[in-house]
Amino acid sequence: MGRTARFSSDAILDAAADVVADGGPARTSIGSIAAHLEAPSGSIYYRFASRDLLMASLWIRTARRSQQGALEAMAHPDVERAAVGAALHVVRWSRSHLTEARILMLYRREQLAAEWPGELGDELATLNRPLEEARHTFTRRLAAAGASANPTDVAFALVDVPFAAVRRSLVAGTAPPRRVDELVRLTCRTVLFGT
Amino acid sequence: MGRTARFSSDAILDAAADVVADGGPARTSIGSIAAHLEAPSGSIYYRFASRDLLMASLWIRTARRSQQGALEAMAHPDVERAAVGAALHVVRWSRSHLTEARILMLYRREQLAAEWPGELGDELATLNRPLEEARHTFTRRLAAAGASANPTDVAFALVDVPFAAVRRSLVAGTAPPRRVDELVRLTCRTVLFGT
DNA sequence: GACATACTAGAGAGCGCTCTCTATTATTGG
DNA sequence: CCAATAATAGAGAGCGCTCTCTAGTATGTC
What we know:
0% strand
C-alpha cells in the first residue's frame, strides 16, 4: 500500500549528520539538508514535523550508537580494565566514527534543537539512564576494590578526560593520534587507582 | 565636542557577554543584546558595523583577558610549578570569571561570528601568538628539565585536561568544585613529570 | 485496471533577524 | 548663545528560514 520511500528517516538523519558535522548546527537548515540529499524540503517535513524534532532525533540516534561500547567496556570483570576500557572507548569510537563524534562532542543538545520537542516525551530523560546506572554500579565496584569512588573523580577519569583528549582532533576534523590512548590510560589509572 | 555616550563599546560587549553566557550564541541577536541593555538596536550598530564584528570583538576581549594569568604562571622559574600553575590558572580563572569562561570554553569562535570580519585584519592570527610562543619556549624548558616535551602531552596537560575538569561545571553554570584543582594538579604532574 | 495509500514536489506565507536610513537630541568649543 | 559634532532613537526594507498547503506520482490490493 502506497509508493516506496525515496528518502527514509535514516537517510535524512545521515544527511543532517553530514551537514552538522561540517557546518555546525547554525548552518544546518532544512534547506541545507535537503540540498545535501537532493531532496525537496517538503519530503523532509513529511518525515519530521519540525527542525527541532529532526535534530533531536539525530541527537538521540547518535547518543544511542555511542553508548553501546561504553556499557560493554564497563562490564569487564576486572575493575581496572573496565575503567580503562570505558575511558578508551570514547577515543576509539571517535576514531572510527568521526562525523558522529563531532556531533556528539563539539555541540550540546540545546545547540542542535533549541526546544526539546514534546512529541519525544521523556526520551531525553531516559536516554542517558543506562549509562548513569552503569556508572553508579561501577562506582560501587571501585569502592569495593579500594580505588577512588569520588563521583567527581569517576566522571573526570571516565568521561571528561577522554572527551578533552579527542576534542582537539575533532575540531580539526582528523582522527585522534595514537598517543592520546596512552595519555587517557595513564590519567585514568593515576586518578582512580593511584598507580 | 558632541554628546557623551550612553552606551559604550564595553558596555555593549558586557551585555553581549551576558546574553551569550546564558542563551548561547544562536539566541544572541542584536535585538536581544539591545533589550538586555535597554538600548535601541541603532545605538549598537553605531558602535559595531555588524553582528559578526561585535561577536568577534567579544571573543577577542575575552581571550585577551584570560591569557594574562596563563603567561604569568608559565614564567615561574621552577618548571614544575610553572606547568602546574598554568594548568590551574584555567580552573581558577573559570571560578572567578564564570560568564567569560562560559563564552570561551563552551563555544568556538565560529559559533559566535560566522565570518571573521575583514575589518579586524590579522587580529585573529596574532591573538594567540603570545600564548603559542610561551608554550613553545616552555616546551624547551621541559625538555631541558628531562620532563616530557611531546607537544601532544604538553597540550593535553596544560590545556585539554584543565578544560575537561571545568567544562561540566561551566555547562551547569556553577563554579568548579575545589576537588578539580587536585585532579588537574595530579594529572599535570603525572603526564609531564611522571611523579 | 481502478482505487486507496504513501510519498514526492515545490511554491509561497509568515516571521524574526540584520542592517540602513533619517530625524532628533545632548554636549562641547568658540 | 551658537554652530559643529557625537550620539541616540526607532521605523522599515530585505533576506533567509521554517513550516504549510496543494497538486501530482508511484506502488500495493482487490
